[in-house]
Structures are given as structure tokens and as C-alpha cells.
Amino acid sequence: MFITPQSVQAETxxxxxxxxxxxxxxxxxxxxxxxxxxPRHARRALRPTTAx
Length: 52
What we know:
Blueprint: H1 5-35, H2 42-46
């Protein structure tokens, strides 16, 4: 395979696009995981507070 400036530029731009796609995919997945509320124990949620 011959290495020309055009082939190097094409390979570089291809890799950059792949990195951008991978980064945006992980950025989209992360907020979904963080948005899930943590399940609370039923008795703890209904316990009277000290102010009551």
C-alpha cells in the first residue's frame, strides 16, 4: 500500500469521526444511567420526621 498525503489525511479524518461518534454515544448513555432514581426503602420513606 502506497502512503500518500491524501491517504494519510483520509485516515486521520476517518479516525477523528470515529472518536467523535464513540464519544457522543457514551455521553448519551451516561445521563440515562444517572437519571434513574435510587429505590428508597418503603418504611424509611414513610417514617415521621423529627419536626412532626
